[in-house]
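Glycerol-3-phosphate acyltransferase
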Amino acid sequence: MRLYQGFRSLILTIFRKILFLWVRTDVSGNSAETLGLDPEKPVCYVLQYSSLSSRLVLEQEVIRAHLPGASEALPVKNGPAHSFFFLYRRIGGLFSGGRQTPVPTNEFQALVRYGLEHPEQDVQIVPVSLFWGRSPDKEKSLVKLLLSDTWSVAGRLQKFLIIMVHGRNTYVQFNQPLSLKQVIDEYRHSEERANRKLARLLRTHFRRVRQAVLGPDLSHRRTLVEGLVRTQAVKEAIRETAAKDDIPPEKVRGKAYKYADEIAASMSIVTIRFLEVVLSWLWNRIYNGIAVNNIQEVKEVAQDNAVVYVPCHRSHIDYLLLSYVLYKNGLMPPHIAAGINLNMPIVGPILRRGGAFFMRRSFRDNPLYATVFNEYMHVMFSRGYSVEYFIEGGRSRTGRMLQPRPGMLSMTVRSFLRDHRKPIVFVPVYFGYEKVMEGRSYLGELRGKKKQKESVFGLAKTVRKLTNSFGRVAVNFGDAIPLAQVLDTVHDSWRDEAYDAEYRPAWLTDAVDVLAQRVAANINASVAVNPIGMTATVLLGTERLAMDEGQLIRLMDQYARLLTTFPYAETVTLPEGSGKDWIAYCESMGLITRQPQKLGDIIALEGSNAILMTYYRNNIQHLFALPSLIASLFENKDSLRRDKIVFLTSVAYPYLQSELFLKYSMEEIDGIINQWIDVLVDLGLLTTLEDDRIGRPEEGTEAMLRLRILSRFIIQTLERYHIALGILRKYGSGKISASELEEQSTLLAERMSILFGLNAPEFFDKSLFRNFIANMQKNGVITTDENGLISYGEGLEEVAEDARLVLSVEKRQAIQQVTMMGA
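Predicted structure tokens:
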């Protein structure tokens, strides 16, 4: 028997070596740490379908990853002869179709029987999913369809051909183990029921993984486009447009077809595989690596939900990067909402086949187009496709999250209300670039330069940058947001109402607003802190954008301790190394300069880099917002009562929360502020005094320097608020409209930026003033009369006086001078 087993093992080894002369694999989850394996318990692997090739691939990957062996007997007394088993056994001969039956295999039954007979021992069952290629391309020939790994099961001859065609694009996914003991514990007296339970769990698991990896079956694009025009909503829009514009219905129907054809994606797995190769080359050329964090949560929610990926929008690279990361991690790339400006020659067709569907910037005054687009989105969601869109609308030129636009979110909510059989989950995504590719062009646009229209020639110019190094990039996935959960908080009886394509319930706007704020907050709660952002934050907090290297290193290390002592969120990632490493890295990236000096080198920001670095500071500004706000209260006060600190900080918080998308609710903010006060005391930035007072360090000490620079992380935001308040008070109650206040504030902020050398482009961003004014109205600080003029009471005067605490005498005088000029 031993001789037979040895000979059989040798034959299988030879087959495995031959197979891997051709096969190339991409593997996920193949480490004991990722799987969370207990080294004290035996491991048994399970594959879905009985197949020699699958067994050989499993054995090869287990050996490569130094995981417990799969071919040896399970290392338990009287256990099964192998450390793997197949869930389904094959019925039929060599050349027959490979129909599978849910009847458990002998190995499966042996493992369950062993578990029942030895209740004191446990076995870790690791499901392993294997895909020869990733999905069918249904717009190609029947031959290609036949040789694609799909939801159907291939026979032996078909499997051989599939391996020959797709073997070099094989994907293997190891998944979290099941505990045999836990699964069958309740059925100790019924082997049949124990078998059924374990089989059901494994069958469900493999189905969910297959759904996540392959996605829903792809429909023929032409059929989809024709189907959109035949929907009831589009038919009604055609009739209304024909009657309104006095155009024959057939002509309007042709226009609707053109709209649908302009919008619809044409996802092609051939194109996706081609893009994978091209993008792998591209990322290796321009980046020093891609860090992916919290991808496991995405894999889990993708198995049972239609996923909407909602990333921040920093670069045109975002589109490609997310699809690439998902595909490399075994998930189907999403259908991506792209601006119609990207539907240019050459590039547009490639993007469309990569999953992009195109949308016009505005649907206003074109109800026919709006209806066609709405119906297309409804098809995507109701069929379970994953979708990606940017809630900011456009790319952020300042490095901050932009205010969310409600359009796509509203479409998603309305589609879900019409048909909520398939749950929808939003997955926030944060892109953390150490050096954004469009950085220099953003600088030009912020200085008033006209935005360049996308074109093939512009793309050709960009190709020249591919020899540059743009550092590392992080793709962080945030905590998922189930849409049904959000709707429950806004309108808990939403399931009991009937909805059609045109119905907009009265509470829809509130639901979309809550959803938008939560998505934006979760994106910011997934921020990737990198050396560039840390260096930019500290250097921009100095008076002259320069500092002694040793002192700068100490400050950076101490501010990094703030982020580790009181973490903002579990999904935030921090850079490796220390301040010294970060300075060296920024210098190698050409973003800071070093001025040698005998008493110690000076590190400085110069020229356009000083403005460019505000972009990277703004990426992480929200993490320091609360401690910086607390620190700013001590600009003109030696000490304050703790309750006064909490009150002043909580008054300013709603405005910072709206602008920076902070995650804390108003109900919990007092407790968070008190925690931050304790952290600042523990780290020596503040001190405790008698009578529940909090004091600042002595002037001239390094602790006071740390506190003062910390306050400057947020001070320009507070100065901007003070400008708006100063203008409003100068004009008086009932004397100026919201639009006039916005305009005056923007002009004076721009003037102040020039006069006092403020190098933050967002300082005079009109949209930020608009948001601040809207929030004052929302919080009841101001009201508008029937003529649109702003009125206010004593409450605003008190807020304005308290706000003076955070500004230096020089700044107060400067703002007062500027506001007097403006008035």
